[in-house]
């Protein structure tokens, strides 16, 4: 299976004559649903499958990827904006050889750049797009004007929720808002901390039906993660659960979610459809 996947990746790259990272923004309607923990462990899962991954902590003012990894990065994205530190120098190595850019007030600062500074950011980020297969942005909970503009630029949006009614309603509200701005967004759904398979299926079905009925929008369900005690144990140790207990129920479920997404990604890649992340970024940030 791994050899076949690698063959498909190589075929797509050769056909496009260039490797460009798939950009993913991980979002949630409210805090406390495990979004950052998902982002970190999903990145590690992709790395374990042989992909090169950059995890970008965009949780403004509340970035906690470093805490979940149990280490502190020397630099954050704020060093680029305030001190001109090259993005390549800000990147630190995380578990299983993933690359990490620590959070700060990066998204706010990005909107405050003048034309020359923004062009410098685009030039440096363009190099990153050709160094990695996946760039994953761990966004802040909820949504605001700045974050919504950024979300419109990525290839895919992962929405993380839990079965709690408030979390489901907030997730729906975020998707409703984004769909009102752009109906072409690719939305993927992950339900976290489910008590049973039935609860996971019902939560996903509830959101699918709501989007179909009120927004005429299809959302792609990637699956659900069980409420596994190994997660809280790993958080207490400040070790990602995919590393602390790779054989746990939640780790196996996350591996299945990553495999599901890989299949979706290959299908899209084989149609030769590529989103221009940097072009859209420049358009949304400088023309509004």
Automatic annotation (TrEMBL):
<dbReference type="GO" id="GO:0016887">
    <property type="term" value="F:ATP hydrolysis activity"/>
</dbReference>
<protein>
    <submittedName>
        <fullName>MinD/ParA family protein</fullName>
    </submittedName>
</protein>
<dbReference type="Pfam" id="PF01656">
    <property type="entry name" value="CbiA"/>
</dbReference>
<dbReference type="GO" id="GO:0051782">
    <property type="term" value="P:negative regulation of cell division"/>
</dbReference>
<keyword id="KW-0067">ATP-binding</keyword>
<dbReference type="GO" id="GO:0005524">
    <property type="term" value="F:ATP binding"/>
</dbReference>
<keyword id="KW-0547">Nucleotide-binding</keyword>
<dbReference type="GO" id="GO:0009898">
    <property type="term" value="C:cytoplasmic side of plasma membrane"/>
</dbReference>
<dbReference type="InterPro" id="IPR050625">
    <property type="entry name" value="ParA/MinD_ATPase"/>
</dbReference>
<dbReference type="GO" id="GO:0005829">
    <property type="term" value="C:cytosol"/>
</dbReference>
<dbReference type="InterPro" id="IPR033875">
    <property type="entry name" value="FlhG"/>
</dbReference>
<feature type="domain" description="CobQ/CobB/MinD/ParA nucleotide binding">
    <location>
        <begin position="24"/>
        <end position="240"/>
    </location>
</feature>
<dbReference type="InterPro" id="IPR025501">
    <property type="entry name" value="MinD_FleN"/>
</dbReference>
<dbReference type="InterPro" id="IPR002586">
    <property type="entry name" value="CobQ/CobB/MinD/ParA_Nub-bd_dom"/>
</dbReference>
<dbReference type="InterPro" id="IPR027417">
    <property type="entry name" value="P-loop_NTPase"/>
</dbReference>
